[in-house]
């Protein structure tokens, strides 16, 4: 299984002040240990860098993420993400522009999203988005 890891899980994994035992973080650590394919996108990297301060944190994040393949959106991804956002809105589900694009990238590349953000659960209920679920 190829996992797309979003900002919420990376933030939990990188912060030292978070409670231990989050299933999503355990899955991330296990996937790294097993050598599974982990992917993310530049938007996730950017959000992480904006959320952590200090040059040491910045350089550690950049270094750790340099080994991860980035999924890069193209024009069709942006078009389909807008369609996904409109579709969800018609179903009563509000999602942000970036979240719609992240979901679209997972759908297009047949990736399972590893997230701690409950907003994606509502998106998955109205789309082909696959989410990792704790066994």
Characterization of the model:
The structure is a single chain. The chain has 135 residues and is of the alpha/beta class. It contains seven helices and four strands, in the order E-H-H-E-H-H-H-H-E-H-E. The chain has a four-stranded parallel β-sheet, sandwiched between helices. Helix 1 packs across helix 2 and helix 5 crosses helix 6. The relative contact order is 0.19.
What is the fold's blueprint, element by element?
Layout: E1 3-5, H1 7-14, H2 23-34, E2 38-39, H3 42-51, H4 55-65, H5 75-90, H6 97-108, E3 112-114, H7 119-124, E4 130-131
Parallel strand pairs: 1-2, 1-3, 3-4
Helix pairs in contact: 1-2, 5-6
From the spread of the alpha carbons, the general shape counts as globular
- Cα distance spanning the termini: 14 Å
**What is the N-to-C succession of helices and strands?**
EHHEHHHHEHE
The chain-level mean pLDDT equals: 91
Structural class: alpha/beta
What is Rg? Answer: 15 Å
Q: Would you report the number of β strands?
A: 4
Described by strand count, sense and barrel closure, the largest sheet is: 4 strands, parallel
- Write down the oligomeric state: single chain
> What count of helical segments does DSSP give?
7
Largest sheet: spatial strand order? 2-1-3-4
Low-confidence region ranges: none
The percent of residues in helical segments reads: 55-70%
Strand fraction equals 5-15%
């Amino acid at each position: 299984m190829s996992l797309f890891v979003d900002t919420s899980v990376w933030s939990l994994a990188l912060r030292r002040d978070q409670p231990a035992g989050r299933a999503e973080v355990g899955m991330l650590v296990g996937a790294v240990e097993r050598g599974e394919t982990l992917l993310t996108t530049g938007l996730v990297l950017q959000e992480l860098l904006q959320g952590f301060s200090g040059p040491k944190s910045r350089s550690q994040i950049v270094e750790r993420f340099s080994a991860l393949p980035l999924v890069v959106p193209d024009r069709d991804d942006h078009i389909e993400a807008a369609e996904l956002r409109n579709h969800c809105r018609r179903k009563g589900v509000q999602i942000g522009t970036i979240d719609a694009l992240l979901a679209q990238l997972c759908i297009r590349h047949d990736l399972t999203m590893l997230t701690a953000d409950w907003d994606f659960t509502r998106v998955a209920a109205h789309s082909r988005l696959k989410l990792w679920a704790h066994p």
